Amino acid sequence: MIVDAHHHLWQVGRGDYHWMSPDMPVLARDYLADDLSPVLRRAGVDRTVVVQAAETEAETDFLLSLAAETDFIAGVVGWLDFEDAAFPAKLEALMRRPKFVGLRPMLQDHADDSYVLRPAVLDNIRHLAAAGAAFDILTFPRHLPVILRMLDAVPDVRAVVDHLSKPPVASGRLEGWAEDMARIAAHPGLRCKVSGLVTEADHEGWAPGDLTPYVRHVFDVFGADRLIFGSDWPVCLLAASYAEVLNAARGILDPLLDADGMARVFGGNAVSFYRL
Fold it and tell me: Would you state the CATH architecture of domain 3-274?
């Protein structure tokens, strides 16, 4: 089974995608299950995890409703305000919803880079960990030292770094990012998604070789059991097709893994991490 553990679906008219603007024509349109279904079929992908793209509870409800009527969606990563006093009760309600698997605060968009270290946020990350839900980490490299402190404070949280924390692929630099990724990878409960790299590369002229040093590094520090493939569709369409993203990841990882390792990265690890 092949699992795409990171993609989005959205309906622009809902109006809660604050980051979307008309000058992004590739993205500023509806992307729903019927748009993705034939793409998955051609790529041979069996199941997916859809991830929030708006900081609203309404979007989470929207995604859970889509998942309820879509066979290929196996899990939904939603959103709650981690400073909301009602967070524990709201999380408990979400845990009862079919296909809900975890939460993702949009840390990269917060003005406060240390948001996850606020006392209320840490308390609610502890609630999330106790409930057994997953925590998706959306950050830039500058956030990684803060994430390390968060992991030290809540060592039992089941977390995954999205998009390798968006390293500067277009520049080819690894310094700083590589060392910080190695430090946070020392937390055994942490995973890393092989996703989102094409949009950090040169959109007009990237090649799989541009992504290789970054993927090889996370393979070295996380190992085959803690890497999870995700397409980041439709955001990836800014730079590449779905097939190009999947084939690039396969081409980079195939020399590093045997058949069992490839099956884990492209399916089994997502199933076990998200408890699909």
Answer: Alpha-Beta Barrel (3.20)
